[in-house]
Design goal:
This protein is of the alpha/beta class. The chain has a single domain, classed as Alpha/beta knot (3-Layer(aba) Sandwich). The chain has six helices and seven strands; from the N terminus they run E-H-E-H-H-E-H-E-E-E-H-E-H. Helix 1 packs parallel to helix 2 and helix 1 packs parallel to helix 6.
Length: 151
Amino acid sequence: MFHIILHQPEIPQNTGSIGRLCVSTNSSLHLIHPLGFDTSDYYLRRAGLDYWEKLAPAHYQDWEDFLARNPARRLWFLSTKGDRFHTQARYQPGDGLVVGRETKGLPREMLDQYADQVVKIPMPGDFHRSLNQAQAAAVVLYEALRQINGW
């Protein structure tokens, strides 16, 4: 129903957890290279447990390759730099949720190009770092599923 797009992920455990999230929600996983790990990595498989083999993630050389092979997909970009909360977006089946690198997030040029499609998760705590990649993907994906399924 939804697509999780990881832009140059660096930490295999986060990608493994997101893979598990995708399998449990019938979502697709897209991995945009370069990756900070090998997909046969022990930690990736460990985090994904037995789900990784059921996932069959799509791989792309770079962002341009992803766009060329997925031209009609509506995208939402998760970033702390967004102007609106993830709950203010109106999701549709087939939407893609784009998550950036753990250390740098999404490139500024990408956020500028898709400014109307950038959403953020409210973080009222006193901690000045964002949620990790897997947590952010889960929060926004479940909001999208709630909207579609009326949960």
